[in-house]
Amino acid sequence: MRTQVGIVGAGPAGLLLSHLLYLEGIESVVLESRSRDYVEARIRAGVLEQGTVDLLTETGVGDRMKKEGMVHHGIELRFGGQGHRIDLHELTEGRAITVYGQHEVVKDLIAARLEAGGEVIFEAEAVDVESLDSQNPTVRYRKDGEDHELRCDFVAGCDGFYGVSRDSIPEGVLTVYERRYPFAWLGILAETPPSSEELIYTYHERGFALHSMRSPELTRLYIQCDPDDDIEDWSDERIWEELHARLATDEGWALAEGPIREEGRGITPMRSYAVEPMQYGRLFLAGDAAHIVTPTGAKGMNLAVADVRVLARALAGFYASGQTELLDRYSETCMRRVWLAQRFSWWMTAMLHRFDSSDEFQHRLQLTELDYVTSSRSAAKTLAENYVGLPMDLDLGTASTPVQGTSA
Ligand code: RFL
Ligand code: PHB
C-alpha cells in the first residue's frame, strides 16, 4: 500500500493531522494498534485550550464540542481550607477553556475521517518505521496476524509515549530530557454531578487533589498517591475519604459522592519528558511520542494539537511548492511551545504537590507561592495566560515572537 503521509497512531495527534491534511488535499493513512471501541472509550484529558477549540471549530469538527463542551471562565486554587478563584476570562481579555473529554474529540475526529472516506485502519500495529533517510520511508505493520507495508512520502509518528516511531530513530540522534517525580495521580470517574461549577486544584498536607468533570452528571477526580501504589489497595472508601479530607474547606464545602466507574480508574506516574529534534529524515514526531508534560497544567493534548497544526502547514507548503523550509523548521518551531508548556506544567506541579512531608521549609514556600499567585494580579495573570494557552501565532514566528501575542 502507498500513501502520501503514513500516520502511526489514532490519538488526537494522528487523527487531527489526518483531518488537517485532508483539508489541504493531502492523502494519508492512519494505523492504530487498538480497536475503534477502545480508543473511543479511553478516558484521558479533559481541558481544551481556547486555541484548540478554535482550530476544531474552524476545521468543521467542533459541532458536538460546542453543544456538549462546558466553557469555563475560571478555576479555583484551594489551600489552607480556603478557595481562591483565578478569573481566567478577565485576566486574559476574554479567553476561556472548554471541558470536553479527549475521547469525545477522538470520536468526533474518527467520524469526520470516515465520513470523508479517510482511511483509519484499526487493530493494525506498527512494528517498525524504515528507510527514514530515503524519499520512501516505510511503516511495517501487523494486521490479522499478517505482515504489511505502508510506503509513504513522509511518516508522522503520533503513536504516544510507548509507540515505536521514536525508537526507529538511530541511536545518538535524539537528546532526551527527562524528570521523574516521587508521586503519581490516581484518577476516577464518578457518577455524580460536579460539586463545583469550575475545576478545583487543591494543595493539602496530605497531598494534591483535583476536582474536574466530564458532563453535568459525571465528576472526574484525581488524588496524588505513591507511584508504587497498587490500585487494588485503593478501595472506594479510601479514595472518598482522601478526597473529602483534601478538598475540605473551613466553610464546610461538600463533595458529592457517586458510584465509581471502572473505566477511567487508574494510577498515572508523573513525568516530564522531551526529545529533540522532533524529526529525523522523513519521520516527524508529534504529541506524546515526542514529549510528556505533567498533567497539572492540562497541556498534553493541547500540545499534540499544536504540533500537528505546525506539521500540517509544513507538509501543505511542501506539496504546494516543493519547498522544505517549513518542514526543516518543524522541530524548532514546536520546541518553543513545548518548553514553555514544560515550564508551566512543572511549576504548577511543584506548587501543588506534597514532596517530602518532613520538609517544612518547602511546605511554607509552596503556601507562599499560592498566597502570591492568588493575591498578586500580575502573578495570577501569568498563571491565567499559560492555562488558557499561549497564542497560536507563537508557532508562526521565531524565538523572539512575544509569548503574550495579539490573537484573542
Ligand atoms: P495518544 O493519545 O497516546 O495516542 C497514541 C495512539 O497511538 C497508538 N499506538 C500505536 N498505533 C499503531 N502502532 C503502534 N505501534 C502504536 N503504539 C501506540 C495508541 O493506541 C494511541 O491510540 O497520543 P497523542 O495523540 O499524542 O495525544 C496526547 C494525549 O493523549 C495526552 O497528551 C493527554 O491525554 C495528556 N493529558 C492531558 N492533556 C491535556 O491537554 N489536558 C488535560 O486535562 C490532560 N489530562 C492527560 C490528562 C493524560 C493523563 N494520563 C492518563 C496520561 C490526565 C491524565 C490522567
Ligand atoms: C481532567 O479533567 O482530566 C483534567 C483536568 C485538569 C488537569 C488534568 C486533567 O490539569
Q: What characteristic shape results from the CA principal axes?
A: globular
Q: Indicate the radius of gyration in whole angstroms.
A: 21 Å
Oligomer: single chain
Helix content: 25-40%
Strand content: 25-35%
How many angstroms does the end-to-end distance come to?
Answer: 43 Å
What does this structure look like?
- There is one protein chain.
- The chain has 408 residues and is an alpha+beta fold.
- It has a domain at 5-71 and 96-177 and 271-352: FAD/NAD(P)-binding domain (3-Layer(bba) Sandwich).
- The protein is 34% helix and 26% strand.
- The protein contains twelve helices and 20 strands.
- An eight-stranded mixed sheet has the order 6-5-14-15-16-13-17-20, with helices on both faces.
- α1 runs parallel beside α6 (102-115), α1 (12-23) runs parallel beside α8 and α8 packs antiparallel against α10 (330-352).
- 45% of the residues are buried.
- P-hydroxybenzoic acid (PHB) is lined by residues 45-47, 199, 212, 220, 295-296, 298.
